[in-house]
């Protein structure tokens, strides 16, 4: 798969085959993602790759705390509710996903089930917990930028090898659970996790293609037509 094809066809995958992902393949993907640029070459990222029993404990711990009403506890600052165009785009993708999955607007049970899947990292066979060095705080914005780069590298490299991913903020909502089970070192901050596995092509949400603004709506060219 060439780069254009990978970038154009990649989409978030939320349904996975019950099939393990070889450790060597994950290492290859991480080696590619690890080529990401970072501010002054600081490379502040750390990746914790979970599968099997530890991953199941993380997903069940995360889900049950959310079900019990324990307030979300993340290690990065929460943005709160989105508004305006950001809220519109959030709703747009939710509508696309719910339509694909046949989840009606007023079906609270199915909606809750969907949210719970997110807290369980969509039952993916692998989860990569993405962390950065605590020493980057305060003012960790640049480290956040660096982690975005390495995380996009991960999902793109995985996609080019036939694997699917979803970057999954829901999966680390109860970060103390993740920290304890995955034994995240004290000098690292949990940013997010990436669910990964072989896409289940019969899972309807996997076919959803999120919409984008045309280039001219988000870009200004300055000095080109002078
Ligand atoms: C920082 C971040 C956090 C995300 N968290 C979640 C999540 O918790 N649950 C989920 O279903 N998707 C999550 N996503 C995936 C986005 O919903 C998805 O990227 C967006 O809707 C665009 O769709 P696409 O990836 O298929 O192009 C997250 C993406 C990012 C970048």
UniProtKB/TrEMBL annotation:
Entry-linked Pfam families: Nitroreductase
EC number: 1.-.-.-
Keyword Oxidoreductase in record: yes
Record keyword Acetylation present: no
GO molecular function: oxidoreductase activity
Assigned keywords, A-Z: Oxidoreductase
InterPro entries per record: Nitroreductase, Nitroreductase-like
Stretches assigned to the Nitroreductase domain: 9-198
Record family assignment: Belongs to the nitroreductase family.
The name this protein goes by in its record: Nitroreductase NfnB
Organism: Ascidiaceihabitans donghaensis
